[in-house]
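Each field is set out underneath.
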Amino acid sequence: MAVKVKIPTPLRRLTGNQSSVSADGDKLSAVIESLDLQFPGTKERMCEANGELRHFVNIYLNGEDVRYLDGLNSAVSEGDEVSIVPAVAGG
C-alpha cells in the first residue's frame, strides 16, 4: 500500500529534489525501507545503526508524532501522509 512521504529540504538531494514521494509498507519501518530502496542513503540519515530513529529526526504520521504512537512499528494505511521533519535548534 502506498503512502505519501513529505521530504524535508536536507534530504531532497537524495530524492532528485522531490518534495514528496510515494513509498510502500504496512508499518513505518517498512515505509523507511521502501524509501531507502528507491533513494539509497535515506535510512542512514534517519535511523541509527541499531535501527532506531535518530534523536534529531521527527516523523509525523497524519500529523501525529510517531514517538507518541508506536514508533517505527506504527501501522500505516493506503493514503496516509508521513512527514519527515529535522529538529531545529538554536538560541
